[in-house]
Design a protein that fits this description.
281 residues; alpha/beta; Rossmann fold; two-stranded antiparallel ribbon; 11 helices; 9 strands; disordered N terminus
Length: 281
Amino acid sequence: MQPAACRNARPGGMLCLMMRDKDALRHQYADSSRLGARANLHALYSTNRGSWHRWAHEQADLSSSREILEIGCGPGFFWRDNLDRVPPEGRIVLSDASQGMVLEARRELPESPFSFTVLDAQSIPFPDKAFDVVIANHMLYHVQDLDAALSEMNRVLTDDGILLAATNGLRHMSELWTLTGLVRPPLPFAERRTTKTFNLENGRDVLSRHFSRVDLRRYDDSLAITEVQPLVDYVLSIKRGQDEVDERSLSSLADLARKRIEQDGAFHVTKDSGLFLCRKG
């Protein structure tokens, strides 16, 4: 049954779309299983054999920061890759809108110097100027009221504090989404996943409404996929809610990917990721 708000909205109305999007996000990020399938594809086939999380840490030299807040921490991937770089006398608050993600991060990381909480990025329950660094790693494009969230992040940063805001460009994974568009019967959920609200192309303009200095750093990487199943798992990980997947569609996707790998030796996919370093003054 549709939610009451969807039943009362005009067909295709914005309110109904927003509720479906929120439900899809809750389903996507209830735990790390779907996120893990996506991370696995990058871990196996990225041509840059370094670590995204360690690279991102290096852009702001977080080792000397004392008070750090990560919003949208997921299962703690960022700090699990940077445990040897934890500030010796620091406090790191890991937060997410998903209680399941926060519980997983708590299981994977030590209690000190980490603490864990569930929060909404649009209403951060900490006082003004409480943190030297705020990390928003590939999550701002999920926020419904982006300006409210960025205003809150600015508020809780010290005057010389830094926001690390990571996102993707509009070319990110474009070859993969082109491939899914060829699947027959069509996959019901596999349209191209652009980050329209916050991406590398528009991010500077969005962030400049709240921060006086915004610098972009891009991460050089791509995918060279040589096996079919991890690619299929990746596509399945974006499945929304109760969307049904026809086995013929999965077979078609696997066949298309296999042909591309056999033809070129690997299925080559563009990655376009980076982060913005933002300062208040």
